[in-house]
Amino acid sequence: MILIASAAYVNAEFQIEFGKLPPALLPIGNRRLFEYQIQTLRAKFPGEEIYLSLPDSYVLGYKDAYFLKRENVCLLRSDENLSLAEGIAQALDQSGCRGQSLRLLHGDTWLQTLPEINDCIGIVETNEDYVWEVEDQDAHSESIWCGYFAFSDLLTFHSLLKEPAARFSSAVRKYDELKNLQRIHVEGWHDFGHVNTYFQSRAQLTTERAFNELRITDGCVRKMGTPYEKIEAESVWFEMLPAKLKVFAPQLIDSGFECGRPFYILEYLPLPPLNEVFVHGKNPTFYWDKVFGLCSNFLEQCRQVQLQEDQLVSIRKDACELFTNKTSQRLDRFVNASGHPGLHVPSVINGISVPGLKTIAEECQEALRQQDVQAGLLHGDFCLSNILFDSRSDRIKVIDPRGLNAEGKKTQFGDIRYDLAKLSHSILGLYDFIIAGAFELDYKFSKDVCEFDLRIHVDERIQEIQNVFQSRTFAGCLRSIDVMPLTILLFLSMLPLHDDDVRRQHALLANALRLYTTFIR
Length: 521
What we know:
Blueprint: E1 2-5, H1 12-18, E2 27-28, E3 31-32, H2 33-44, E4 50-55, H3 62-70, E5 73-78, H4 84-95, E6 102-106, E7 109-111, E8 120-126, E9 134-137, E10 142-151, H5 154-161, H6 168-179, E11 182-185, E12 189-191, H7 195-209, E13 214-217, E14 220-223, H8 228-239, E15 252-258, E16 261-267, H9 274-280, H10 285-303, H11 309-323, H12 325-338, E17 347-349, E18 352-354, H13 357-369, E19 375-377, E20 387-390, E21 395-398, E22 413-415, H14 416-427, H15 431-435, E23 439-445, E24 450-456, H16 460-471, E25 473-474, E26 478-479, H17 484-493, H18 502-520
Parallel strand pairs: 1-4, 1-6, 4-5, 8-11, 17-24
Antiparallel strand pairs: 2-3, 6-10, 7-12, 8-10, 9-10, 13-14, 14-16, 15-16, 17-18, 19-22, 20-21, 23-24, 25-26
Helix pairs in contact: 5-6, 10-16, 11-12, 12-17, 13-17, 14-17, 17-18
């Protein structure tokens, strides 16, 4: 059997960032840490049962319960007040100690490579100064236990854990005396047990997965990529940011061209993106009320930027282009490529009938025409994944601005309704839940109707956060309901951009219909 031991809670410093979570449930790249752990364990040991231990008092959300059931991971419960040895022993008691051997992975650890042999301890070299179990050390580094163990005799190890006043490390060392555990140096170790190592590991994983377009080294983020115009526009946005708004962004270190490709370098901020906190955190509602207040303050500061008359004319034109022509073009692309029966074919979403996509788009566009454009400095992609929260200074920091208007020209300015719509796109539209795969969807098309049944895996916590969001006024004059037509258009216009995953693409379409039935009809 395999046990991921995660039956305690993260420390207080982590809880400020993510709420009260067991370590294996920490968010990494809009996924739970246990998703990475299970994926690696399954690939290496496909025939072995996986167990995950959690604290008795932790209430597992529907999203996580659904994932673990789908992956055939068995849940065990332990008293979070027990020592590590006692907690693991209690989990093994519940499991019935199935099988003769045990592979044990600490809940705050992910290894990209795992030793295959039994009776071993995973070892890594580190120069970080934390309370780890040390095997060896010199003036430059120390060799430590990395959180992975394999025992060929489960029952013997179990009995050692249950000895009076046993500690985990002493039980392992006693077992070592009996069975001669091999020390195996492992590669690809990521420690998430301390705030510093958590963000270091995140930075390393981000660099590994960005294919050289995003590199995090020496406290800096270096960004390159395509299209070139977008990278250059982002760089200019940071460079031209008014002085009073610089506090809302990382410091721009450098920018330029390398082999004809634009790049820019920002300071690296070890802060969690808010989409991961929203989807995977356990933060209280008042945490989010504070965050929304900070977002409102940012938008208000953007709205107060002084503009010339020609800039206002350009912003109005761009706003109209953005929610009319762009949406129409994107919908045409989607229908032509996806097999959808047509823009005039009505739909049924969760049992509710709605008109065709063209009618829905036109209703939303007309509602926006009845409102005043709110001109100001525009981020252009003000969604939760592009907002970092600094709990120590009570500030938000924004990254990845758009920097281009609908015509592809570089600009910092636009209609602030768009930024609030992007934020609403995350909070009320639940975009990041869909991207995380936290949904169930059934759909079928005919020439007469498109039918969708969509369930997004949210719980009461998310609903309370949404209620707080809807009760707020942003930038002094805007409410989320005011920009809901634009939020729906955002979901419709992004459909062709998600053709790499047809199921997710249709979930986004169904979600646009859900929002339409909830807020427009």
